[in-house]
Amino acid sequence: MSKGHLNHQGHQVHQERRKTKVLKKSINRVFAFDFLGELGALGGEMRYCLRFLVLLLGFFFPALQPLRAAEDDDDAQILSGKISAEGGAFQMPGSSLSAYQYSRLSLESHQDLFSGLSYGLEGEADWQSSGKPMPPSEPEYPVENVFNLETDNYASETGTNNYFLELERAYFHLATGRLDLTAGLFKPQWGYSYFYRPTDYFFPLPPLQWQGEEALGSEGLDAICFLFDDLSLEGAVRWLEGGDAEGVIRLVDKGIGITVTPSLALMTGREGLGLEAVGTFPTVQVRVEGVDWLYPDGHSASNWNLGFSTSREGVKYTAEFLRDETGEILGGYSNGLLQTTYAFLSAEGKFFDQWKAAPALVAPLEGGPFLFWPRASWDFEPSWELGFQAQWIIGNWAGPLDLYPGRTGVSLAYSF
Hints:
The chain has 416 residues and is mostly beta strands. It has one domain (3-68, 77-415): Porin (Beta Barrel), CATH 2.40.160. It is 12% helix and 50% strand. It contains 2 helices and 21 strands. It has helices at 3-28, 39-60, and strands spanning 80-91, 98-114, 117-130, 152-155, 161-176, 179-186, 218-228, 231-239, 245-254, 258-267, 270-280, 285-294, 300-312, 315-324, 340-351, 355-357, 360-364, 370-373, 375-381, 384-394, 406-415. The chain has a 21-stranded antiparallel sheet that branches. Strand 11 and strand 12 (285-294) form a beta hairpin. Residues 1-51 and 63-72 have low confidence and may be disordered.
């Protein structure tokens, strides 16, 4: 048997062990109480929900205090947020339709303490319930931060109720001339792609995530040194559960219409060489973004995304092609294919001043079912939004997305 074949088998074993580890972590986080039982259990679930709300509001209470006494800042908004309620139906593969509800409260505060120093706080509390076990609306990741302050997911034994209390951001930012420092629970802005960002090394947002506003933050330190007006050097380090540390170095070269960013990622169990290249022209933007991963056993795998965007009469059209050789991006919803290429097509526009629509299509080029992903919203009042979103699997034959659940939801949101 060849060395290359052994390495490929080793990579498959590595991926299966990683998926098993994620599953075990999810099982270990399950609390042994049934939310669909008697009235006492119902009271218990309400106590947990109220506790989460009190904790989250208590965390943000200091941000409500005036930070600046100047009269011209009297009207400054210290705290903003959004509260939403969503209802709909979902369907796991091979199962029947089931109803669900998803309620969400998000809060954030970004303020300047004094010249050059600011802080950011962001968090949310969520409640998801369904008639049958349902995947959580918030993303789950295979590794956790060392303090694990950013997220806690509590689920019933049956998987029909999930509570989330998430501290998403808690950081200080210092800007001093040519040096920017960020410390705490933060999320670097890496990558330019829409469907998936391979070079977003610290907790990249899953490409089909239902709630796509915020990705998981990292506990660590980020420093950017502006060497010249169009050239900067960035270094970031984060600490994970168990004491492991991971680091990223990026060199950002911003030219006229073209930005090139090579990067080096030193991650747990592998190292990566990445590249981001973005060209912005009068009518189109072209993006190339990817990482070549090298593993300790000598084998390598790549994740790359090639994208195009253009605007016509107020509508933004996007086409991206994602090559996934690690099986980690959408591997949990596939039939075991490790090397898969996905096409992502979308159109996003605003019409009649108050309406927005963003239909998208995700199709594996190797065949199998594809995903139709329509989204629309209506801002019928300045602070109110009525939304619609669906993820429908088209086709019942085998393929990389044949295990993905279908979902349709209507939401009402209020922003303040």
